[in-house]
Specification:
7-stranded mixed barrel; alpha/beta; 7-stranded mixed β-sheet; 25 helices; globular
């Protein structure tokens, strides 16, 4: 703490006297004491000394060069002397520097924190209101409507934040990741955020990891946070970006190489001489979309681009301190990567990925032909730029440079065109500097500073549900129905520049590098490659003040949760495990193929129920495909023989005392850090999730904390634990039939590294026994037995 260091300064001065040398030593300490982590937390310092001290211990133990990822992660170890460190195997106990929560996930996180009984958060924490604002008409109107519709939730978040010492960013302030980059991220910081795109902060040299609300609660409660020791994938960049190629093309290319699960269990670490050709916000873009390859997070080494960005965003002291500690903010020469990818930026071409998955990569020059051959709609109905991935000043400037060329030739966008500023600071600055006007003049609608269509908060009315159509976005994710709830929408992700060009041309067949546009007067012209300032020449315009500082004394603050509310619901602690095996569970659904968190717990209109577990449970697995009939949200009730929706059948089983299990395929739970994807089955009577493999955040098979394990290990819910298990032999997936009864045996001897057995009782009287793996360690088993980590914490108090 800064005030502690300042106190130490004065005590040292009194003890040592005022000699020149002694004064110099304590003065240096005083100078360092003044470097706060952010302007909003003046008494909490950037602590490179602790990072360096931990690294000194780890270096002596490992005796080898370290990657940047290792330096930051191991520098935050709770016990650097005793912690076992083996990449890809051991679990690390870490002490993150701060917690960030978006408003949808913050509801459940704060409800859990309230249930912990603790008076105040243990680390700097913030809440950001960005997920509950639906795009309808335009920024001002949509924001006002959101404030009215979500008043109860915003009031709960504001008062609970004030009560427990959490900073609160009001609706309209911007998207969580842009706010973090502008105010809180810095080289070497470790941030956990309740959103899967938290890795955006890696663009400023931090290890920023997306987690569920339960992990946030652990850290806010002062409990060491567990992370499976990540492997490190190195991406060496050479050459330099130019022309139509943008930072977005780097991650689009990497996604095509690694696929949606190629980064699982690893941190992606960019390095090499090409890094210096990328802006700080461009590096943020690349790290942000690293979530789509399943990576734990992504990070760039400290360089002059970060220094400039820190200075431009009012953090010059942190920039100076980072320069002084640069040796711990870059990888060691000769460090080892578990996998190495090399990309020559000078040869990289503009890319566009999709549809329906972010790893289906195509050069822009080829997408028209591929779309024509595949039967994808060629007409671009809507172009959407912005989102947390691509809404920087540079992004908006480069898009505006293309819009200006079209306007100069008398053209406007053929497609609808929307613009989402990343923050109030970006909105105010692009308004001041004329970018917003240019984008409006070409046909754009400037939306609120919020997530909007990127997460499905879009009241789209230009096409009917089920109508095939194409949209192009600068977003990060394009799963089926994600943006507009229409499963027939073919969504492609690309850079803001390419989105703008395609929106002007109105077709996927347009290649801006080679093709001509036709002006109203018949003149043909080519778009000149986009240009834009990395940062504004003048300082950023901060816009409206949207931050609420928590009061020093919150004893008079009252947090209300109306028992009759349909938006908020207080949680009850889990019951302890009863010590028995789980026997004769019914299969609720055997999922066929891809099952993302959007399939398990859809966003969009369901976001309003994120703070009410019972109500949001009505979307449980409604997007998953049932292998029995290839239908969505249609499963057989094994007690009555009738078909019904997944949540309805789950509730029926629960009411009749029938425990149930979900069976899944590969990469189950791919997508957002949505703990509700595990809370809901728990609430509706589910006990086990058995899959071939879990995606990064959903399963502890890889890096973060398993979403399913949130239930057994962390969450405060209503019943007993939910077990996330994987087939020891993936072919055993085929042995399970939709009408099976499944028993999990061996729980009395539940131990780390020891598989469990499942007995499959088939309706024809036969049965199979299969082996299931888990990744619980001893501490997590204690959490399971207690009902939750918070329950266990209370037991130890």
């Amino acid at each position: 703490m800064c005030f502690i260091l300042i106190l130490v300064f004065f005590l040292l001065q009194l003890a040592l006297g005022h000699g020149v040398r002694r004064l110099h030593v304590s003065a240096a300490l005083f100078v360092k004491a003044k470097v706060a982590m952010s302007r909003y937390e003046p008494t909490t310092c950037v602590n490179y000394q602790k990072l360096r001290s931990n690294l000194d211990i780890v270096r002596k133990r490992l005796d080898r060069p370290l990657t940047l990822s290792e330096k930051i992660v191991y520098g935050h170890l709770d016990d650097p002397s005793g912690q076992e460190i083996v990449r890809g195997r051991t679990y690390l106990r870490l002490r993150p520097d701060r917690v960030a929560m978006q408003d949808a996930t913050a509801q459940m996180a704060m409800l859990q924190f309230i249930s912990s009984g603790l008076p105040r958060v243990a680390v700097p924490s913030t809440i950001h209101c960005d997920h509950l604002i639906e795009a309808q008409v335009g920024g001002t109107q949509d924001l006002q409507r959101a404030k009215e519709v979500n008043q109860e939730v915003y009031n709960f978040l504001a008062t609970s934040a004030a009560k427990y010492g959490v900073g609160f960013w009001k609706p309209g302030s911007g998207i969580i990741h842009q706010i973090i980059l502008e105010n809180y991220a810095y080289p070497g910081v470790m941030v956990i955020g309740t959103d899967s795109h938290t890795p955006n902060g890696g663009g400023l040299g931090g290890i920023c990891i997306g987690v569920g609300g339960a992990d946030a609660v652990d850290v806010m409660a002062g409990i060491p946070w567990e992370l499976k020791c990540p492997n490190v994938i190195g991406v060496k960049l050479t050459g330099s970006l130019s022309g139509w190629t943008s930072p977005k093309d780097v991650i689009l290319k990497v996604a095509g190489i690694l696929t949606v699960k190629g980064g699982t269990g690893a941190i992606v670490e960019y390095h090499g001489p090409g890094v210096d050709s990328i802006s700080c916000t461009g590096m943020g873009t690349i790290c942000n979309m690293g979530a789509e390859i399943g990576a734990t997070t992504s990070v760039f080494p400290y360089n002059h681009r970060m220094k400039t960005y820190l200075e431009k965003t009012g953090r010059g002291e942190i920039a100076t301190l980072s320069e002084e500690n640069k040796d711990i903010l870059v990888p060691d020469p000769g460090c080892h990567y578990d996998q190495l990818i090399e990309i020559n930026l000078s040869e990289l071409k503009p890319h566009i990925n999709g549809p329906f998955t972010p790893d289906l990569a195509h050069p822009v020059a080829e997408i028209g032909a591929v779309a024509e051959k595949s039967g994808w709609p060629l007409e671009v109905k809507v172009g959407l730029i912005g989102s947390c991935t691509n809404s920087s000043y540079e992004d908006m400037g480069r898009a505006a440079s293309l819009a200006k060329q079209a306007l100069d030739h008398g053209l406007k966008c053929k497609a609808q065109f929307t613009v989402t500023p990343g923050s109030e600071q970006i909105r105010a600055t692009i308004e001041r500097d004329g970018y917003a006007k240019i984008l409006r003049d070409v046909g754009g609608v400037v939306l609120a500073n919020a997530c909007g269509p990127c997460i499905g908060q879009w009241d789209r009315r230009d096409v009917k549900k089920g109508e095939k159509n194409t949209i192009v976005t600068s977003f990060n994710r394009n799963f089926t129905a994600r943006n507009d709830a229409n499963p027939a929408t073919h969504a492609f992700v690309t850079s803001p520049e390419i989105v703008t060009a395609l929106a002007i041309a109105g077709t996927l067949k347009f290649n801006p590098e080679t093709d001509y546009l036709t002006a109203p007067n018949g003149e043909k012209f080519k778009l000149v490659p986009p240009t834009g300032d990395e940062l504004p020449t003048r300082d950023f315009d901060p816009g409206q003040d949207t931050y609420q500082q928590p009061p020093p004394d919150s004893s008079s603050v009252h947090v209300d949760v109306n028992p009759q509310s349909n938006r908020l619901q207080l949680l009850e602690p889990f019951e302890k495990w009863d010590g028995r095996d789980l026997e004769d569970m019914q299969v609720l659904i055997k999922v066929k193929g891809k099952c993302t968190t959007d399939h398990i717990s859809a966003a969009g209109p369901w976001l309003k129920f994120r703070g009410h577990l019972d109500n949001i449970s009505n979307n449980l697995l409604i997007g998953a495909v049932n292998i029995e009939n290839d239908a969505v949200n249609k499963v057989r009730n094994q007690l009555t023989g009738e078909y019904g929706g997944v949540p309805d059948i789950a509730r029926y089983y629960k009411k009749n005392g029938i425990q149930w299990v979900v069976v899944g395929d590969e990469n189950y739970g791919e997508g957002s850090s949505r703990e509700h994807a595990a809370l809901e089955p728990r609430h509706l009577g589910g006990r086990v999730i058995i899959v071939k493999s879990f995606a990064r955040i959903h399963g502890r098979v890889d890096s973060c904390v398993c979403f399913c394990m949130y239930l057994e290990c962390h969450m405060v819910a209503l019943e007993q634990g939910l077990l996330p298990l994987t087939f020891a032999d993936p072919h055993d997936y085929d042995k399970i039939r939709p009408d099976d009864k499944i028993s999990i045996i061996g729980l009395k001897k539940f131990a780390p590294g020891k598989p469990l057995k499942a007995v499959l009782k088939h309706s024809d009287g036969s049965q199979d026994t299969i082996q299931l793996n888990h990744t619980f360690n001893e501490t997590q088993i204690e959490w399971f037995q207690a009902g939750s980590a918070l329950n266990r914490m209370k037991e130890l108090q």
